[in-house]
Design goal:
38% of the residues lie in helices and 18% in strands. The termini are far apart. The strands form five sheets. It has a seven-stranded mixed beta sheet with strand order 14-15-16-13-12-17-18, with helices on both faces. It has a six-stranded mixed beta sheet with strand order 9-8-7-10-11-19, with helices on both faces. Strands 5-6-20 form a three-stranded antiparallel beta sheet. β3 and β4 form a beta hairpin. The protein is of the alpha/beta class. It folds into two domains: 285 residues, Aldehyde Dehydrogenase, Chain A, domain 1, CATH 3.40.605; 184 residues, Aldehyde Dehydrogenase, Chain A, domain 2.
Length: 503
């Protein structure tokens, strides 16, 4: 099937972009190399997408450098106006973007329509509104001096985003960077580049000047490495695995560039015996099974008070087994495929790891038997009861529809288990005890805590972790600080400074 036929079959009304976007134009990679982008529902080829190499990174950086003076000095309100127009265009193209995201990633179309696209538009709109509201301050210093600070963009920013939420992550990364006046070289994941390239097209339509954003899908080991090492990139922002994050830090040392990392997680989702069980069961299912568990903030460690564990698991298991797997373009589908066959195999391998360490598979742990799903990257919702909180399945990020169940007897044990990993990204607890909720919010080793909910995000609320989950924050005023640097200006108004070396 050719590209035009694939577009028609998927219900897409505009061409699927499959070239690099550099200096305002879609162009082939300098090497001519491409990589097939696959539909994870059946592993068919959607498109052959250009693969950026080092020469393309250099072209993109040069374009971003040329664009930086004009963009950074543009009135902040005008930068904001372009981002607001982009948000409107994204909403106008909701169905197109949703279908393209589902085709490329396996997200159920219901999720893409109601979550991915609205969150993307909302994030660009938030930072479009913030562009002319992020300001410096005056500082009281000694008499006779005026001291004020300027918030300046850092310059050319390299951004590397993962394959699990490729559309939404364009806004998380580019929204604040553009509002602050930076120019961008972005590398979307090579296996899910299609909506990122579509966003580049919409940016041009919104009036973004040539070279301000350059979109260059490519291999992490080639294009990503070149971005991290590049001496004229002032900052690199990365979302992905902790192992790759370490390599980004090492590669950035050449010019001591600013680094922002949002890495892995092993979120504890703690249910106390006084919790609303109906809400906790549904919330815990959302925490791990939404997007097939492919989320760094997933509630992948389900921690149950021993008094309610049996009742909870009976109902939670029944709910998990009722989730409808299917073609992500089918509106009835509740869980689609994992995003690649390689990742599906990695997730399934953890069931054997669990068994080897004495764990019990309570549900799932295999690919579905349905013939219409056999060619895809599907994994059934999987529930594993671990023998110990120190087991590998309770310590390592599986990144799939795979939840590890642990039990605890009291608050002290719950906190010890929750904080017993190297990660510290998302966490949650379910309780009707207000004092306990605030104590745990204070004591959990995590960048985010949800109480009687899980996995809520908003453009105004900072998102990020501690420990092996990285550093720096996405979203909110914190994100604007990440993409600016402070300049302190001293003005002698009427200070009488005696000569230091009187003669």
């Amino acid at each position: 099937m050719n590209l035009a036929a694939i577009q028609t079959a998927a219900g897409l009304n505009t061409p699927i972009r499959h070239q690099l976007f550099i200096d305002g134009r879609f162009v082939d990679a300098a090497s001519g190399q491409t990589l097939p982008t696959l539909n994870p529902h059946d592993n068919s080829v959607i498109a052959e997408v250009a693969m950026a190499g080092r020469e393309d990174v250099e072209r993109a950086v040069a374009a971003a450098e040329r664009a930086f003076p004009k963009w950074s000095r543009m009135a902040a309100a005008e930068r904001g106006r372009i981002l607001l127009k982009l948000a409107d265009l994204i909403e106008t193209h909701t169905e197109e973007l949703a279908r393209l995201e589902s085709l490329d990633t396996g997200h159920p179309i219901k999720d893409s329509r109601t979550l991915d696209v609205p969150r993307t538009a909302g994030c660009y709109r938030y930072f479009g509104g913030m562009a002319d509201k992020f300001q410096g301050e005056t500082i009281p210093v000694e008499a006779g001096f005026l001291n004020y600070t300027l918030r300046e963009p850092v310059g050319v920013v390299g951004q590397v985003v993962p394959w699990n939420f490729p559309l939404m992550f364009t806004s998380w990364k580019m929204g604040p960077a553009l509002a602050a006046g930076n120019t961008i070289v972005m590398k979307p994941a090579e296996i899910t580049p299609l909506t990122s390239l579509k966003i580049a097209e919409l940016m041009a339509e919104a009036g973004l000047p040539d070279g301000v954003v350059n979109m260059i899908p490519g291999l992490g080991s080639v294009a990503g490495q070149a971005i991290a090492e590049h001496p004229r990139i002032a900052k690199v922002a990365f979302t992905g695995s902790t192992a790759t994050g370490r390599r980004i830090v090492e590669a950035s040392a050449g010019n001591l560039k600013k680094v922002q990392l949002e890495l892995g997680g092993k979120g504890p989702n703690i249910v106390f015996d006084d919790a609303n069980l109906v809400a906790a069961i549904n919330g815990s299912a959302w925490a791990i099974f939404h997007n097939q568990g492919q989320a760094c903030i997933a509630g992948s460690r389900l921690m149950l008070h021993e008094r309610i564990a049996d009742e909870f698991l009976e109902k939670f298991t029944a709910l998990a087994q009722s989730i409808r797997l299917g073609n992500p373009l089918d509106a009835a589908t509740e869980m689609g495929p994992l995003t690649s066959a390689q990742h599906r195999d990695r997730v399934l391998a953890y069931t054997e790891v669990a068994r080897e360490q004495g764990g019990r598979i309570l549900a799932g742990g295999k690919a579905p038997a349905a013939a219409d799903l056999a060619r895809g990257c599907y994994v059934e919702p999987t529930i594993v009861q671990a023998g110990s909180w120190r087991d590998r399945v309770a310590q390592e990020e599986v990144f799939g529809p795979f939840v590890t169940v642990l039990t605890f007897k009291d608050e002290a044990e719950a906190l010890a288990i929750a904080n017993g990993t190297d990660y510290g990204l998302g966490s949650g607890l379910w309780t009707s005890n207000l004092q306990r909720a605030h104590r745990f919010a204070r004591d959990l080793h995590a960048g985010m805590v949800w109480i009687n909910s899980y996995k809520r995000v908003n453009p105004g609320s900072p998102f990020g972790g501690v420990g092996q989950s990285g550093y720096g924050r996405e979203m909110g005023f914190d994100a604007m600080r990440e993409y600016t640097q402070v300049k302190s200006v001293w003005v002698n108004v009427d200070a009488q400074i005696p000569p230091w070396y009187p003669r």
